[in-house]
User: Fold these one by one.
Assistant:
Number 1:
Amino acid sequence: MSDPFSRAVGAARGLLRRQRARRPWLDHLVHAGGRYNRVQGDLLASGVTYYVFLALFPVLLLVASIAGFVLSGNALLEEQLVTAIREAVPGSTGAELAEQASGAIDRATTFGLIGLAGFLFVGLGAVDKLRVGMDVVWRGRPDPPDFLVDRLKDLGALLGLGAAGALSIALTTGATAASSRVLGLLGVDEVPGAFLLTGAVAIALALAGDTLVFLWLLKGVPGNPFGVRQLLPGAVFGAVGFEVLKLVGNWYLTLIGQNVTAQTLGGFVGLIVWINVVARFAFYTASWTATIPSIEHAHALVPHGPAAPTPLPDVALV
C-alpha cells in the first residue's frame, strides 16, 4: 500500500495527463518545459545573466560620455543637471555625486572609450552565451568552437539585437507620441476614455517592437534555418510574456522604492533576479518555438550530427 504522498503525486500526474490530452496549448507548454529542462535552461540563463549584469556598468559609462558631449557646450544645462542631482540626493552624498557628474562631463572622451571597450568585451560575452544557449536549445549541442568565426557571429548578433531594440524603442515612443498629438489636433484628447485609445496603441506598438526583438533572437542569433512565418508564433509568444515580465518588474521596483532599506540592496538583487528571469524566459520561448508541431517535425527530418542524449520525460517548469 502506497503512502499518502505517493498517492497524491500519482493523482497529480494523472490529472496533468488528462488535462494535456484535453488542452493542446497546455500540452505544448509542458512539452516545451521538458525540452527546456533537458537542455538545462536555468544553467544557460545563469551565464547570460552574469555577462548582462556586468555590461550595465560600461553602458552607464557610455551614457555618461554621451551626456558629457551633449552638455559640454551648454553651461546652463550642465549647471541644471548638477543642481538637480544635489536636490534629488541630499547631504554629502548628493554633493559627491554632483561633483562626479561634473567630472564625467569634463572627461567624456575617456569615459566613452572605456565604456565602449568594456561594452564590446562584456557584450560579446553575453551574446556568446546567448548564442551557445540557443544552439543547444535548437540542436541539442553548440557548434564546434572557432574563435574568429564565433566573435564575428557574436558581433553581428549584438549589432542585430541592438538595431532591433532601438527600432522597438523608436517605434513605441514615436508612434505613441504621434497618436497623442493627433488626438490633440482633433480636439478629442480631453474626451473621457481617450487615454484608453492611446494606451491600447502603446501596448500594441510595444508588442510589435518586442516581436521584432524575439524574431531576431530566434532566427538571427542561432542562425536558424526556419523562415520568419514559421517563427512568428514564437516571437509573439515571447513578446507577450516579456510585457508581462516588465509589468512585474515595474511593480517590484515600485514596491522596494517605498522602503529605504530595501532600496540599498533590493535594487541590485532585484535587477539580477529580473535579468535572470528574462534570460530563462528567452530560452523557454526558444523551447516553445522549437516544439511547435510543424517545426519539430521538420527539425526531426534534418540530420544534425551525433545523436542527442536520450530525452527525459516532459516535466513542468517549477
Number 2:
Amino acid sequence: MRPPLLLLGTLFIATTATPALAKDEARVTVAVTGGSLGVGPEVAYRATKKIGLRGNATFLSFSQSFGSNDLDYDGKVKLRSGGVMVDIYPFDGGFRISAGGRSNGNKGRVVATPNGPVTINGTIYTPAQVGTLSGKAGPKNFAPMLTVGYGGGIRPGLAFGVDAGAMFQGTVRLHDFTASNAMIRPQDIEAERRDLQDDIDGYKVYPVLQFSLGYRF
C-alpha cells in the first residue's frame, strides 16, 4: 500500500473507533508553519479528540560556505517539500504523536572557484587548470517522518503548534560533479566528489523543528 493511502486508512479506522467532536469544538486549523523544513501554509483537520490529519508545504532558500580538503565551496540549498501527517492525541488535548511522509524536493548545489594553487587527490593544480568545480545534491523523492509536539486545544480561536522529530530522507547523493576546465584528471575529480559525499553522508536523518501559528474554527 502506498504511504498516502496507508495514512488515509489509519485515519478512517481511528475516526470510526473514537468519539466525535462536539458541535462547539473546532475541527479545522489554517496556519503558517516555519522551521527547519522551511516556511509555508498548513491545514489541519481534527477528526476526533484523539486523531487528526495535517498537511503542509514548505519552502526556503539559503546559502552556506564551507571548506573541504584544500577547496572553499559556496553551497546553495533549496528546501521544497510537502507532506501529510496523521496526528494522534493520546490524552484528548494538545499533545500529539505524528507519523507520515513528505514528497522531498530538497536540493543543493556546490561551487568552488580557487584563486590560488590547490591540491586535489594529491595533485597540485593552478586556478587556470581547475576553473570552477560544481556539483548537485539531492535525496530520494519520498521521506517518512516522525514527530512529537503540541497542537493546541479544540476550541475555536488562535492556534499555536510546535513539532520536533526527524525526516528519514536516506542518502543525499552528490552528482554531476564536474570541472569547467578539462585539465584535471578524471580520477582526481572523482576523488574530490567522494570526499564531498563523505561530508554529506551524515544527513540521512534530517532534524525537524517546526512552529505554526494560525486560526482554528
